[in-house]
Structure formats: structure tokens, C-alpha cells
Design brief:
This protein has 365 residues and is of the alpha+beta class. The protein has five helices and twelve strands. The protein is elongated and about 75 Å long.
């Protein structure tokens, strides 16, 4: 972020950058670490300029697309160092870019293999496949490809997402059955009501997405036990179930959908529940929401339904009763926690309703 530190030093707020000077410095250090690590492994590595500072035009339809050819001298440099694995993009002085695409010849890896070609771009990446293999989800339906060539039983290769198929319990979180998206910690790009629409999400704006936490570390560390990000940062949304919530048989099915969220889906999700209407207490929606982000608030007893689990981009994650905890407890509200931030398209909660009027047990689509 060239110039960001000097703008901060001049004062007048931090307009022009969403980060502090320390954050900018950490980002610069992270870039240098890439060079250092590659240097240690490959005997030499450095940043080379492949495109000099170049003016851009506004993002109007007639001026938004920019295409650049790389100079022949730079191509020879790239060939001499054995190819490029990372790029660093500098904005002057700030601003936004919608897409960045680089085209070139594929260099073979050390084992002689190459990256998947564009003709085979529906192949599941190894990191994604590893998440699928280790996920407690009964089904993970990848929206981007309904015919991928893998044999993992967790991956749904049918054309229809699980949420569009009939199920014996109603989707109590859905607007159709009286569900309400009550409150959330951050509504920068969407509101909780979007999470409970009956239809599939039409785009990212049709979901709930939070702003990136400014405290996010430049270097991601993972918990050695869970394999998930070791971070205290998260955002939450509270959904109220329709039909009076579930009966004593609790929740039987949960679907978390990251449809359209490909680079900004949350790393992981956790879902808790509470019963705000019982013989012991009768809490208001305001009291439930007030306790959602306050660990010192004991007015509401939140209990786990779905432990923190890794997400996959642009996919429906289906969890059945055997992978849901506290299925014998009544639930009137759920708290959806995303780590550390990001966007979800839909959250669907199914169960036997407390009030059975107007609950046809059929698909909502």
C-alpha cells in the first residue's frame, strides 16, 4: 500500500487505507518473507517488476477493461528464474480492482507435473478436497461443478442441491415458516434476513457478508489440533425460528450455503442454539440478541448445535442429526458465528415444529 504510512503520519484520519501503519508494515514484511522463504528453498529469489506504474481508467463499462503485454525483457527475466509463483500488486495511491488475470505459459513443477489447464478447471483443488474428506458434513454440494470426477461420498455430484430436495421436517428458519433474521455483529454487505430466504442466492449481495476485521493478522496461523485458523475474531448473526421453534426433538438438519462466495467465504462456521421460551424463562428477542456477542451475559443459555467446521467456497454444506449436538433440546433461536469474517448465502435450520399449523413438509423451491 504505497503512501499509506505517509498519509497516516500527516494526520486527518486514516482515509485512504483501512489499516494502521503497523498493519501496512506487517504486510510489507509478509511480502519479503515470501522472497526469503523461496530464497532458502531454491537458492535465490527476488521481486522483479513485470509491469511498471501504469495509469488506469474508471470502472465504467466502456473504460473498465485494461490489457497489458509484458515486455520481452521481462519475459526473459521470468524464464531465467524458472517462472513466477507469487505476484505483488501496488495501488497508487489507493482504490479498488474488481479482477486481476495473468496469462502465460505453464512451467512444470519439480515433479514434472503442471497446473490444471483451463479446459479442466472443474477439478477440485487438493486443499478443497482435503477439507471435504475431513468434514463432518453429510453432503457438500459444489455449486460450480455438478459433475466433478471424484469418488468422495461426502461430495454430492447430483445436479440438485440438497436444499431443493424434499425433507420430512420443515425449514423452520425460513421466512416461509415465520423465521426472522434478527440481528448481527456487522452488516457491511448484507443483513441476516437474507440468510433465511427460501430461494437459492442470486448473487453475493443476496446474502450476509461482513467487513474484514481490521485486526486480522498478516500471517495466518492454524491450530495444530483442529487445523482451523487460530483466531479470536468472528462475526455473528441471530436467527429466530418460525412455528415457535423446534419441539423437544430438537434440530434434525442444518444447511450452510456459501453460494457465490468464492474468495470471501468464511474459513469456518459454528452454530449455537437457545430456548427463549420455556417454563423456566421467557426471554425477548432483544435479550437474546444482546447476549449473542457478550460472553459475560448470562441471561441466555447458548448451547452448541454445530461445532466450528471448515467451509468450502460456493457450496452447500449439509449436516444431519448424527453430526448435530443437543438434538434433544428445544431451540427457538440460533446464533451463526463465522470465523474470522466473510459471507454466507443461506443458513437453513430444519426440525419438528413446536406449532404444527401451516407446515407442509415439502421442498420450498
Amino acid at each position: 500500500m504505497p503512501g499509506a504510512a505517509s498519509r497516516l503520519a500527516r494526520g486527518g484520519g486514516i482515509q485512504g487505507t483501512g489499516q494502521s501503519a503497523a498493519s501496512v508494515n506487517r504486510a510489507a514484511v509478509a511480502c519479503e518473507r515470501v522472497v526469503t522463504s523461496k530464497s532458502n528453498n531454491n537458492g535465490g529469489c527476488e521481486w522483479i517488476e513485470i509491469l511498471p506504474m501504469t495509469p488506469l481508467k474508471p470502472g465504467y463499462e466502456e473504460t473498465r477493461h485494461h490489457s497489458f503485454s509484458v515486455d520481452q525483457r521481462v519475459r526473459k527475466q521470468v524464464a531465467a528464474i524458472g517462472g513466477i509463483t507469487h505476484i505483488r500488486v501496488n495501488y497508487f495511491p489507493d482504490g479498488g480492482v474488481a479482477r486481476l488475470k495473468l496469462f502465460g505459459r505453464v512451467f512444470p513443477n519439480n515433479d514434472g507435473s503442471t497446473a490444471p489447464s483451463a479446459a479442466n478447471n472443474t477439478t477440485i483443488h487438493a486443499d478443497v478436497q482435503r477439507i471435504i474428506d475431513n468434514s463432518p458434513a453429510n453432503t457438500i454440494h459444489l455449486h460450480f461443478s455438478s459433475s466433478n470426477n471424484n469418488n468422495n461420498t461426502n461430495t454430492n455430484t447430483n445436479s440438485a442441491p440438497p436444499s431443493t430436495l424434499p425433507y420430512h421436517h420443515p425449514e423452520l428458519s425460513c421466512i416461509t415458516y415465520g423465521g426472522i433474521g434478527l440481528e448481527c455483529s456487522n452488516k457491511h454487505y448484507g443483513v441476516p434476513m437474507n440468510l433465511i430466504k427460501a430461494s437459492l442466492g442470486k448473487d453475493m449481495g443476496d446474502g450476509w457478508e461482513t467487513a474484514r476485521h481490521p485486526e486480522r493478522s498478516a500471517v495466518v496461523t492454524k491450530d495444530p489440533v483442529t487445523g482451523l485458523q487460530d483466531t479470536p475474531l468472528f462475526d455473528w448473526a441471530v436467527l429466530k425460528l418460525g412455528c415457535g421453534g423446534t419441539a423437544d426433538t430438537g434440530i434434525s438438519r442444518i444447511i450452510v450455503d456459501t453460494r457465490h462466495f468464492k474468495g470471501n467465504f468464511p474459513e469456518s462456521v459454528k452454530i449455537d442454539g437457545c430456548c427463549a421460551s420455556s417454563s423456566i424463562n421467557n426471554l425477548s428477542d432483544e435479550q437474546v440478541c444482546a447476549s449473542a456477542g457478550d460472553t459475560n451475559n448470562n441471561d441466555v443459555q447458548w448451547f452448541p448445535l454445530l461445532p466450528r467446521v471448515a467451509m468450502v467456497a460456493d457450496a452447500e454444506h449439509e449436516f444431519r442429526a448424527e453430526n448435530i449436538t443437543n438434538t434433544n433440546r428445544r431451540v427457538t433461536h440460533v446464533r451463526v458465528s463465522i470465523y474470522p469474517d466473510g459471507g454466507l448465502s443461506r443458513v437453513r435450520i430444519y426440525g419438528e415444529p413446536m406449532l404444527v399449523e401451516n407446515t407442509a413438509h415439502v421442498s420450498h423451491l
